[in-house]
Recover the amino acids of this structure.
């Protein structure tokens, strides 16, 4: 679909009212993400451009400004810097890029940082990183905005610190590719995807290391030789087979995880205490990290 709408809740009338967004794209929109201040949002598309959308009160609709160069393929993921003036994207051309997204139309006054040593105009390419041999599925800034992590279809996990943009820490995992990630704290993040299970990684000055799988294996009833006659008959009736045949999985999700989001954070440290995952199995799962820590032997982030 090449259209977009912003829905506003009308409290007096008790219904949601749509407002048109002028995306001005000729290919499908593939990803959308609101900015931290919620005064704009970014839309990635197959048109090889990024639309930064903001509200135009004079005409009562949302308009967009485009970032085109040097994007050469479909945008698959977008994330905003906490400053609200930088945006990172991952695309099918095996690149992860950071752009300046400050809008003079909204009176933005961005601050200089390691990502943007000097003030730049809208759409300026600030950083570009290569993946090995896969398109970028997920990208996210750390809570401070000083680090950027992304996952790609070559099963790689990548992290770069804005203090040294030439040094990218990459881990080529033996797992199936990850499709999304979430920073749990400034020094760790969770990644999930085609393995059906969120994994925890720790980030240090020396690189990125795998910490633990966050989905504890659970016993499923009615499997193997211990299957009762009733369970065997029910399985034969529903699935057309009497044995498990290796079709069951020992994870909570039974298909690819497509999204992972923070639900609550520790007020003192800012670390994620609860998060949710959703996948192609139609499940929405809420994870309590404190409970996970005890079951995984005192896991810390």
């Amino acid at each position: 679909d090449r259209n977009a709408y912003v829905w506003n809740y009308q409290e007096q009338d008790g219904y949601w009212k749509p407002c048109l967004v002028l995306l001005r794209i000729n290919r499908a929109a593939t990803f959308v993400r609101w900015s931290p201040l919620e005064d704009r949002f970014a839309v990635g598309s197959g048109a090889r451009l990024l639309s930064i959308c903001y509200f135009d009160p004079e005409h009562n609709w949302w308009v967009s400004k485009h970032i085109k160069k040097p994007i050469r393929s479909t945008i698959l993921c977008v994330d905003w810097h906490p400053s609200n003036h930088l945006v990172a994207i991952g695309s099918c051309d095996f690149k992860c890029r950071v752009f300046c997204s400050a809008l003079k139309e909204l009176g933005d006054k961005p601050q200089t940082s390691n990502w943007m040593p000097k003030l730049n105009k809208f759409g300026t390419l600030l950083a570009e990183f290569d993946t090995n041999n896969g398109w970028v599925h997920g990208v996210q800034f750390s809570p401070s905005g000083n680090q950027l992590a992304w996952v790609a279809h070559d099963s790689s996990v990548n992290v770069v610190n804005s203090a040294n943009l030439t040094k990218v820490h990459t881990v080529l995992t033996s797992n199936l590719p990850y499709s999304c990630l979430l920073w749990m704290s400034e020094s760790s993040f969770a990644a999930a995807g085609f393995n059906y299970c969120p994994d925890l990684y720790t980030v240090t000055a020396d690189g990125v290391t795998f910490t633990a799988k966050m989905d504890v294996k659970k016993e499923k009833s009615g499997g193997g030789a211990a299957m009762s006659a009733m369970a065997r008959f029910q399985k034969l009736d529903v699935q057309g087979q009497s044995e498990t045949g290796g079709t069951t999985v020992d994870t909570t999700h039974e298909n690819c995880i497509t999204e992972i989001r923070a639900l609550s954070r520790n007020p003192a440290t800012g670390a994620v205490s609860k998060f949710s995952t959703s996948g192609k199995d139609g499940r929405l799962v809420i994870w309590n990290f404190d409970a996970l820590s005890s079951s995984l032997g005192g896991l810390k982030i």
